[in-house]
Amino acid sequence: MSSDRVNWKTPKNLLKLSVLVALATIALKTLAWWLTDSVALLSDAMESFVNLASAMFALQMVTVAARPADDGHPYGHHKAEYFSAGFEGILIVGAALGIIISATHRWFNPQPLVQLDIGISLSILSSVLNGVLAYFMFQSAKRYRSAALEGDAKHLLTDVWTSAGVVVGLVLAVLTDWLWLDAAVAIGVALNILREGAKLVWKSSQALMDEAVEPDVQAQIDAILAGFSHSSNGAEIIRFDHVITRRAGACCFVDMHMHMSADWTLGRAAALRGDVERALVHAVPGLLATIQLLPTNVETHAHISDVVPEQ
Fold first, then answer.
1. Predicted pLDDT of residue 273
2. pLDDT at 114
3. Which positions of the chain have pLDDT values less than 50?
4. Which residues, at least 6 apart from 75, have a Cβ–Cβ distance to it below 8 Å?
5. What is the DSSP string of the chain?
6. What backbone phi and psi angles, to 5 degrees, belong to 295?
7. CATH fit for domain 2-208, picks 3.30.70.100, 3.40.1700.10, 1.20.1510.10, 1.25.40.10
8. Rg of the chain over CA atoms, in angstroms?
9. Could you give the angle at which helices 116-144 and 11-36 cross, rounded to 10 degrees?
10. Are 63 and 168 in contact (CB under 8 A)?
11. What is the pLDDT of residue 208?
12. What is the pLDDT of residue 29?
Protein backbone atom coordinates (compact mmCIF):
# COMPACT_ATOMS: atom_id res chain seq x y z
CA MET A 1 0.00 0.00 0.00
CA SER A 2 2.84 2.36 0.88
CA SER A 3 4.58 1.68 -2.45
CA ASP A 4 1.42 2.84 -4.26
CA ARG A 5 1.60 6.17 -2.44
CA VAL A 6 5.19 6.64 -3.62
CA ASN A 7 4.69 5.51 -7.21
CA TRP A 8 2.09 8.14 -8.09
CA LYS A 9 4.99 10.58 -8.48
CA THR A 10 6.50 8.70 -11.44
CA PRO A 11 6.63 10.65 -14.75
CA LYS A 12 3.91 8.55 -16.37
CA ASN A 13 1.49 8.91 -13.45
CA LEU A 14 2.10 12.64 -13.13
CA LEU A 15 1.47 13.13 -16.85
CA LYS A 16 -1.81 11.22 -16.54
CA LEU A 17 -2.72 13.59 -13.73
CA SER A 18 -1.65 16.49 -15.95
CA VAL A 19 -4.22 15.43 -18.56
CA LEU A 20 -6.98 15.47 -15.93
CA VAL A 21 -5.87 18.85 -14.57
CA ALA A 22 -5.75 20.27 -18.11
CA LEU A 23 -9.36 19.18 -18.68
CA ALA A 24 -10.38 20.81 -15.39
CA THR A 25 -8.60 24.09 -16.16
CA ILE A 26 -10.08 24.18 -19.67
CA ALA A 27 -13.55 23.99 -18.15
CA LEU A 28 -12.79 26.64 -15.52
CA LYS A 29 -11.08 29.13 -17.84
CA THR A 30 -13.55 28.70 -20.69
CA LEU A 31 -16.37 29.40 -18.26
CA ALA A 32 -14.49 32.46 -16.99
CA TRP A 33 -14.12 33.80 -20.54
CA TRP A 34 -17.77 33.05 -21.40
CA LEU A 35 -18.98 34.92 -18.34
CA THR A 36 -16.72 37.98 -18.73
CA ASP A 37 -16.12 38.24 -22.51
CA SER A 38 -12.49 39.08 -21.67
CA VAL A 39 -9.94 38.44 -24.42
CA ALA A 40 -7.27 38.16 -21.72
CA LEU A 41 -9.17 35.28 -20.12
CA LEU A 42 -9.72 33.82 -23.59
CA SER A 43 -5.94 33.81 -24.11
CA ASP A 44 -5.58 32.03 -20.78
CA ALA A 45 -8.14 29.42 -21.82
CA MET A 46 -6.42 28.84 -25.17
CA GLU A 47 -3.18 28.02 -23.40
CA SER A 48 -4.99 25.36 -21.37
CA PHE A 49 -5.95 23.59 -24.59
CA VAL A 50 -2.25 23.55 -25.41
CA ASN A 51 -1.61 22.10 -21.94
CA LEU A 52 -3.97 19.23 -22.73
CA ALA A 53 -2.38 18.40 -26.09
CA SER A 54 1.10 18.70 -24.61
CA ALA A 55 0.35 16.42 -21.66
CA MET A 56 -1.17 13.77 -23.92
CA PHE A 57 1.80 13.85 -26.29
CA ALA A 58 4.30 13.85 -23.41
CA LEU A 59 2.55 10.82 -21.90
CA GLN A 60 2.89 8.97 -25.20
CA MET A 61 6.58 9.87 -25.53
CA VAL A 62 7.39 8.83 -21.95
CA THR A 63 5.76 5.47 -22.72
CA VAL A 64 7.93 5.12 -25.83
CA ALA A 65 11.08 6.19 -23.95
CA ALA A 66 10.50 3.43 -21.37
CA ARG A 67 10.70 0.69 -24.00
CA PRO A 68 13.77 -1.54 -23.68
CA ALA A 69 16.56 -1.49 -26.24
CA ASP A 70 16.06 -3.65 -29.32
CA ASP A 71 17.93 -4.54 -32.52
CA GLY A 72 16.82 -1.35 -34.25
CA HIS A 73 17.49 0.86 -31.21
CA PRO A 74 20.44 -0.69 -29.33
CA TYR A 75 20.85 2.43 -27.16
CA GLY A 76 17.16 2.45 -26.18
CA HIS A 77 14.37 4.94 -26.93
CA HIS A 78 15.24 7.58 -24.32
CA LYS A 79 15.41 10.50 -26.76
CA ALA A 80 11.68 10.22 -27.46
CA GLU A 81 11.19 12.59 -24.52
CA TYR A 82 12.99 15.38 -26.37
CA PHE A 83 10.46 15.15 -29.20
CA SER A 84 7.78 15.75 -26.57
CA ALA A 85 9.53 18.86 -25.22
CA GLY A 86 10.08 20.21 -28.74
CA PHE A 87 6.47 19.53 -29.75
CA GLU A 88 5.25 21.27 -26.63
CA GLY A 89 7.39 24.30 -27.43
CA ILE A 90 5.94 24.50 -30.94
CA LEU A 91 2.40 24.32 -29.55
CA ILE A 92 3.21 27.11 -27.09
CA VAL A 93 4.46 29.32 -29.94
CA GLY A 94 1.32 28.60 -31.98
CA ALA A 95 -0.94 29.45 -29.05
CA ALA A 96 0.92 32.71 -28.47
CA LEU A 97 0.44 33.79 -32.09
CA GLY A 98 -3.27 32.98 -31.89
CA ILE A 99 -3.61 35.05 -28.73
CA ILE A 100 -1.87 38.04 -30.36
CA ILE A 101 -4.27 37.93 -33.30
CA SER A 102 -7.33 37.85 -31.01
CA ALA A 103 -5.98 40.56 -28.74
CA THR A 104 -5.09 42.88 -31.63
CA HIS A 105 -8.68 42.70 -32.87
CA ARG A 106 -9.99 43.52 -29.38
CA TRP A 107 -7.47 46.36 -29.05
CA PHE A 108 -9.24 48.24 -31.84
CA ASN A 109 -12.70 47.13 -30.69
CA PRO A 110 -12.81 47.33 -26.86
CA GLN A 111 -15.74 45.59 -25.20
CA PRO A 112 -17.20 46.04 -21.69
CA LEU A 113 -16.26 43.38 -19.15
CA VAL A 114 -18.87 41.75 -16.94
CA GLN A 115 -18.92 39.36 -13.96
CA LEU A 116 -15.19 39.77 -13.49
CA ASP A 117 -15.35 38.69 -9.85
CA ILE A 118 -16.50 35.19 -10.84
CA GLY A 119 -14.16 35.03 -13.84
CA ILE A 120 -11.11 36.03 -11.80
CA SER A 121 -12.00 33.52 -9.06
CA LEU A 122 -12.20 30.70 -11.60
CA SER A 123 -8.84 31.75 -13.08
CA ILE A 124 -7.18 31.76 -9.65
CA LEU A 125 -8.58 28.29 -8.87
CA SER A 126 -7.17 26.88 -12.10
CA SER A 127 -3.78 28.49 -11.35
CA VAL A 128 -3.67 26.79 -7.96
CA LEU A 129 -4.25 23.41 -9.62
CA ASN A 130 -1.51 24.05 -12.19
CA GLY A 131 0.93 25.39 -9.62
CA VAL A 132 0.63 22.42 -7.27
CA LEU A 133 1.00 19.95 -10.13
CA ALA A 134 4.02 21.82 -11.54
CA TYR A 135 5.74 21.64 -8.12
CA PHE A 136 5.51 17.86 -7.99
CA MET A 137 6.47 17.57 -11.65
CA PHE A 138 9.70 19.53 -11.16
CA GLN A 139 10.64 17.27 -8.25
CA SER A 140 9.96 14.12 -10.25
CA ALA A 141 11.67 15.47 -13.39
CA LYS A 142 14.89 16.03 -11.44
CA ARG A 143 14.73 12.60 -9.83
CA TYR A 144 13.98 10.69 -13.03
CA ARG A 145 15.90 13.03 -15.40
CA SER A 146 12.74 13.32 -17.51
CA ALA A 147 12.85 15.98 -20.24
CA ALA A 148 9.16 15.44 -21.06
CA LEU A 149 8.11 15.98 -17.46
CA GLU A 150 10.32 19.04 -17.09
CA GLY A 151 8.87 20.53 -20.28
CA ASP A 152 5.31 19.98 -19.10
CA ALA A 153 6.12 21.41 -15.67
CA LYS A 154 7.61 24.56 -17.22
CA HIS A 155 4.55 24.92 -19.40
CA LEU A 156 2.26 24.66 -16.37
CA LEU A 157 4.36 27.20 -14.48
CA THR A 158 4.14 29.54 -17.46
CA ASP A 159 0.38 29.10 -17.30
CA VAL A 160 0.40 30.12 -13.64
CA TRP A 161 2.30 33.33 -14.34
CA THR A 162 0.07 33.96 -17.34
CA SER A 163 -3.04 33.73 -15.19
CA ALA A 164 -1.47 35.99 -12.56
CA GLY A 165 -0.76 38.62 -15.21
CA VAL A 166 -4.28 38.34 -16.55
CA VAL A 167 -5.81 38.83 -13.10
CA VAL A 168 -3.67 41.91 -12.38
CA GLY A 169 -4.48 43.40 -15.78
CA LEU A 170 -8.22 42.87 -15.41
CA VAL A 171 -8.25 44.39 -11.93
CA LEU A 172 -6.46 47.47 -13.30
CA ALA A 173 -8.92 47.64 -16.20
CA VAL A 174 -11.83 47.73 -13.76
CA LEU A 175 -10.20 50.31 -11.47
CA THR A 176 -9.20 52.66 -14.30
CA ASP A 177 -12.03 51.91 -16.76
CA TRP A 178 -9.35 51.49 -19.45
CA LEU A 179 -10.87 48.66 -21.47
CA TRP A 180 -7.86 48.52 -23.79
CA LEU A 181 -5.90 47.03 -20.87
CA ASP A 182 -7.73 43.75 -21.50
CA ALA A 183 -6.10 43.47 -24.94
CA ALA A 184 -2.76 44.84 -23.70
CA VAL A 185 -2.53 42.20 -20.99
CA ALA A 186 -3.40 39.46 -23.50
CA ILE A 187 -0.62 40.62 -25.83
CA GLY A 188 1.87 40.79 -22.96
CA VAL A 189 0.89 37.28 -21.91
CA ALA A 190 1.32 36.06 -25.49
CA LEU A 191 4.82 37.54 -25.76
CA ASN A 192 5.87 35.79 -22.56
CA ILE A 193 4.39 32.50 -23.80
CA LEU A 194 6.22 32.99 -27.11
CA ARG A 195 9.54 33.42 -25.29
CA GLU A 196 9.01 30.27 -23.19
CA GLY A 197 8.03 28.24 -26.23
CA ALA A 198 11.11 29.31 -28.16
CA LYS A 199 13.36 28.39 -25.21
CA LEU A 200 11.76 24.95 -24.98
CA VAL A 201 12.21 24.27 -28.70
CA TRP A 202 15.85 25.36 -28.54
CA LYS A 203 16.61 23.21 -25.50
CA SER A 204 15.07 20.08 -27.02
CA SER A 205 16.92 20.63 -30.31
CA GLN A 206 20.24 20.84 -28.47
CA ALA A 207 19.51 17.63 -26.59
CA LEU A 208 18.71 15.79 -29.82
CA MET A 209 22.19 16.72 -31.04
CA ASP A 210 23.89 14.68 -28.29
CA GLU A 211 24.47 17.48 -25.81
CA ALA A 212 26.98 16.81 -23.04
CA VAL A 213 25.78 15.98 -19.52
CA GLU A 214 25.01 18.77 -17.09
CA PRO A 215 28.00 20.50 -15.39
CA ASP A 216 27.18 18.98 -11.98
CA VAL A 217 27.05 15.47 -13.47
CA GLN A 218 30.33 16.10 -15.30
CA ALA A 219 31.88 17.20 -12.00
CA GLN A 220 30.79 13.94 -10.37
CA ILE A 221 32.34 11.91 -13.19
CA ASP A 222 35.59 13.90 -12.98
CA ALA A 223 35.75 13.40 -9.22
CA ILE A 224 35.34 9.62 -9.54
CA LEU A 225 38.04 9.38 -12.20
CA ALA A 226 40.38 11.57 -10.16
CA GLY A 227 39.95 9.18 -7.24
CA PHE A 228 41.15 6.25 -9.37
CA SER A 229 44.02 8.09 -11.06
CA HIS A 230 47.40 7.14 -9.60
CA SER A 231 51.05 7.94 -10.15
CA SER A 232 54.34 6.70 -8.64
CA ASN A 233 57.73 8.41 -8.69
CA GLY A 234 56.33 11.03 -11.06
CA ALA A 235 55.15 8.40 -13.56
CA GLU A 236 51.43 7.94 -14.20
CA ILE A 237 50.28 4.36 -13.57
CA ILE A 238 46.53 4.91 -14.02
CA ARG A 239 45.09 7.80 -16.02
CA PHE A 240 41.99 8.61 -18.03
CA ASP A 241 41.61 10.63 -21.22
CA HIS A 242 39.26 11.15 -24.19
CA VAL A 243 36.35 11.41 -21.73
CA ILE A 244 33.22 12.18 -23.78
CA THR A 245 29.67 12.38 -22.44
CA ARG A 246 26.18 12.72 -23.89
CA ARG A 247 22.61 12.80 -22.61
CA ALA A 248 19.62 10.80 -23.84
CA GLY A 249 16.49 11.36 -21.77
CA ALA A 250 16.73 9.67 -18.40
CA CYS A 251 20.06 8.05 -19.33
CA CYS A 252 23.49 9.45 -19.99
CA PHE A 253 26.59 7.93 -21.51
CA VAL A 254 30.33 8.38 -20.99
CA ASP A 255 33.13 7.00 -23.17
CA MET A 256 36.79 7.11 -22.14
CA HIS A 257 40.23 5.54 -22.35
CA MET A 258 41.79 4.11 -19.20
CA HIS A 259 45.58 3.77 -19.31
CA MET A 260 47.56 1.47 -17.01
CA SER A 261 50.95 -0.27 -16.94
CA ALA A 262 51.59 -2.64 -19.84
CA ASP A 263 52.87 -5.17 -17.27
CA TRP A 264 49.39 -5.67 -15.83
CA THR A 265 47.50 -8.84 -16.63
CA LEU A 266 44.23 -8.51 -18.53
CA GLY A 267 42.37 -9.85 -15.50
CA ARG A 268 43.79 -7.18 -13.21
CA ALA A 269 43.01 -4.41 -15.71
CA ALA A 270 39.45 -5.69 -16.24
CA ALA A 271 38.87 -5.87 -12.49
CA LEU A 272 39.90 -2.22 -12.09
CA ARG A 273 37.66 -1.23 -14.99
CA GLY A 274 34.76 -2.92 -13.21
CA ASP A 275 35.50 -0.95 -10.05
CA VAL A 276 35.48 2.31 -12.04
CA GLU A 277 32.19 1.44 -13.75
CA ARG A 278 30.50 0.57 -10.47
CA ALA A 279 31.71 3.79 -8.84
CA LEU A 280 30.42 5.87 -11.78
CA VAL A 281 27.00 4.20 -11.81
CA HIS A 282 26.69 4.59 -8.03
CA ALA A 283 27.47 8.32 -8.28
CA VAL A 284 25.34 8.95 -11.40
CA PRO A 285 22.25 6.70 -11.64
CA GLY A 286 21.28 5.94 -15.23
CA LEU A 287 24.86 6.28 -16.48
CA LEU A 288 26.29 3.81 -19.00
CA ALA A 289 30.10 3.82 -19.13
CA THR A 290 32.20 2.47 -21.99
CA ILE A 291 35.88 2.18 -20.99
CA GLN A 292 38.63 1.17 -23.41
CA LEU A 293 41.76 -0.31 -21.79
CA LEU A 294 45.14 0.88 -23.07
CA PRO A 295 48.77 0.65 -21.89
CA THR A 296 50.16 3.85 -20.41
CA ASN A 297 52.50 4.55 -23.32
CA VAL A 298 49.86 4.03 -26.04
CA GLU A 299 47.88 6.96 -27.39
CA THR A 300 45.00 7.07 -29.84
CA HIS A 301 44.52 10.14 -31.95
CA ALA A 302 41.11 9.55 -33.48
CA HIS A 303 38.47 12.09 -32.51
CA ILE A 304 34.76 12.28 -33.29
CA SER A 305 35.46 15.07 -35.78
CA ASP A 306 37.84 12.75 -37.65
CA VAL A 307 35.06 10.31 -38.52
CA VAL A 308 32.53 12.89 -39.72
CA PRO A 309 32.89 13.40 -43.49
CA GLU A 310 33.29 16.93 -44.79
CA GLN A 311 30.22 18.40 -46.46
1. 93
2. 75
3. 1-5, 308
4. 69, 248, 253
5. -HHHHHHTTSHHHHHHHHHHHHHHHHHHHHHHHHHH--HHHHHHHHHHHHHHHHHHHHHHHHHHHTSPP-SS-TT-STTHHHHHHHHHHHHHHHHHHHHHHHHHHHHHS------HHHHHHHHHHHHHHHHHHHHHHHHHHHHHT-HHHHHHHHHHHHHHHHHHHHHHHHHHHHHHT-THHHHHHHHHHHHHHHHHHHHHHHHHHHHHTTPPPPHHHHHHHHHHHHHH-EEETTEEEEEEEEEEEEEETTEEEEEEEEEE-TTS-HHHHHHHHHHHHHHHHHHSTTEEEEEEEEETT------GGGSSPP-
6. -65, 155
7. 1.20.1510.10
8. 26
9. 170
10. no
11. 67
12. 87
215-306 and 2-208 share a CATH fold: no
- The per-residue pLDDT for 78 is 67
- Class of CATH domain 215-306: alpha beta
Which pLDDT does position 2 carry in this prediction? Answer: 44
Residue-level pLDDT at 301 = 59
Q: How many CA atoms lie within 13 A of 29 on its CB side?
A: 33
Q: How is the chain split into domains, by residue range?
A: 2-208, 215-306
- Evaluate whether 66 touches 250 at the Cβ level (below 8 Å): no
Q: What's residue 303's pLDDT? A: 56
Whether the predicted model's global pTM rises above the 0.85 cut: no
